[in-house]
Input
Amino acid sequence: MGKAETLRNVIVIGSGFSGLVSSLLLSRAGMNVTVVEKNVKVAPLLRNYDYQGFEFNNGFHYLGGYAAGGALHRMFGELGLRDRLNPVPINPDAFDVFQGICDDPIAVPVGAARVRAVLGKAFPGNEAVLADYCEELEKAFRDFDFLNLGEYFIRVDPALIDRSLADFLADRGASPALVEFLSVYTDMLLGVSAREVSFLTHLLGVGAYFLSAHTFEGGGGALADALEAQARENGVLLRTGWEATRIESDSGRRFVGLRLRAGDGREEFVPANACICTIHPKRLLALLQDGASFDLFAHRISGLQDTRAVCLFHLAVRRDAAQRIVSNYHLFHRNEFGGLQHRFTLLPDFTRPPGPAASETRMTALVTAWDNDRGDSCPGGKGPSCQEHAPAGPAGGENKEPAYLAGFRNRFVARLEEGFPDFREAYQIIGITAPCDLDRISATWNGSLYGLKCNSSRMRLTPRGPMKGLYLAGQSIIAPGIFGTLVSACMASRHVLRRRTA
Ligand SMILES: Cc1cc2nc3c(=O)[nH]c(=O)nc-3n(C[C@H](O)[C@H](O)[C@H](O)COP(=O)(O)OP(=O)(O)OC[C@H]3O[C@@H](n4cnc5c(N)ncnc54)[C@H](O)[C@@H]3O)c2cc1C
Output
C-alpha cells in the first residue's frame, strides 16, 4: 500500500467504547469509517439495564482520572464528548469502602495526599513507601497524553512498565498488609494481583481513582448515547445487527474486507483498506480464513485469560435502609487460611441519591459467578438454557432463570443479608445481568469480566494484528476500563493514520 489516496475506508469490528472512539478518531481525520456491531444497539455493554423506565448500569459505574484539565478530561473534549456529558463526582471522602480487609473499614478518599494519609493510618509503618507511590502516581498522570502515547511510552521509565507493583512495593519495604490491600484493589479493577500487574498499568488503572472519581448523569447509557451521537455526526456508518463472520485477506496476507451476517441470515462482503478489531483476540482467531496466526499475534494471545465471570443483581432498596450507603462498598471475608475472598460489591446510584420524596433507591451488586482462569466455566455449559436466559423480573413474565442462576441468587442473598442486616425486608432483586448476558453484549466470552490479565510479562505496546492492515483495540489489548480501552483505541487509530501517510 503506502499510497495516501488508497487508504480511505476503514472498518471497525465492535461498537464498544474502544470501537466508537476509534471510529471517531479516524472519521475526524477524514477517513470513511464503518462500524459493525452484532447487537441491535451500539455499545451494548455500556447500555443500561432498563427496568420500568429506571436504568441500572451494567458495564460502567465510575471512572477515575476525569478531573478537570487532566488527560482523560482533555481527551473527552478532543473527541467532542465532553459537552454531551454531565460528570457527577462520587463521594470525595470515601468513593470506595473496603470492609473485611483490616479490622476497621478502609474508606478511600479522592486526592493523592488524602489517600496517602488514609492508607498510612490503615497500614502503619508505610509512610515512606506511600510517599514514593503518590509521587509516581502524580508524575504518571502529569505527563500522560492520549494523543502522544508513543512519546509517553518512550519517555516513561521502563522500570514502571517491566516491573510489577509488588516489586515496587517490596523494594521500598512495604508491609505485607499494604501489598495485600493494593493487590485486592488491582484484582478487582484489572483482574490481576500486585505480583502480576505492571506498576504503570496499576497507576493508570487503579491510581486514577485516587486522583478523582466520577460517574456521568445517566450512567453508562448516557456515555453510549454521547458516543453514538458524536459518531453519527462525524459521518461514521453504524451497522448494528451485523456480525463479522470472516476476515478476508489477499495472497500477500493483507486485509481486504469483512464478511458479515445479519440476524435474518443475509450475508454481505464489505471491502475496506484497514480494519480495527475490538473483540477478544481469541475470538478474532475464529474469524481468520485459515485460523493461522502470525508469530506476533501468537505471542499476543499466549497467556491471555478470560478472567472471572460476574453476575449483577439490580436492587430496589427502601430509603431508610439505603441511606447510609454513600460509597461503593466492597465486602471481603477472610477464610480459615487467612486468605481474602470477595463477597460482593454494592454500587449505589450516585446520580440519583435518595431524596426525601423517594420511598426507595436503586443499587447494583456485583458478585463473582465463576473463575474462567481456574477452568471453572458456565454451569449451564453455554447450552440453550444459558443463552436463552433473559434478565428475570416480575415484569418479564415467565421466569426463565436457569438453576445455576438461582444458586447465585441464593448465595448472594445470604451474603447481602449477613453483611447488611438492616436490608432484610427492605430490598427486592428486580433484575439480574447474568454472565451469559454479558457474554452476549461484550467482546469476551463466558461472561468474562475483562478478558485478559494485565500481566507485566505480556505487556505489548503494539496494536498490530495477525495480518497487514488489521489492528487490535479493546479491553484485551492494553487494559480494561475506560482508560485502558481509550489507550488501545488511540494506539490502533494512530497506526492506521500513520499507514495512510506512509
Ligand atoms: C460488569 C462490568 C462492570 C464494569 N464497570 C466498569 C466501570 O465502572 N468503569 C470502567 O472504566 N470500566 C468498567 N468495566 C469495564 C468496561 O466496561 C470495559 O473495559 C469496556 O467497556 C470494554 O470496551 P471494549 O470496546 O473493549 O469492548 P466491548 O464493549 O465488549 O465491545 C465489543 C463489541 O463487539 C461486539 N462484537 C463481538 N463480536 C462481534 C462480531 N463478530 N461482529 C460484530 N460485533 C461483535 C460486541 O457485541 C460488543 O459490543 C466494567 C465491565 C463489566 C463487565
Remarks:
- The CA atoms of residues 244 and 260 lie 5 Å apart.
- The chain has three domains: 9-48+218-304+452-500, 71-215, 308-441.
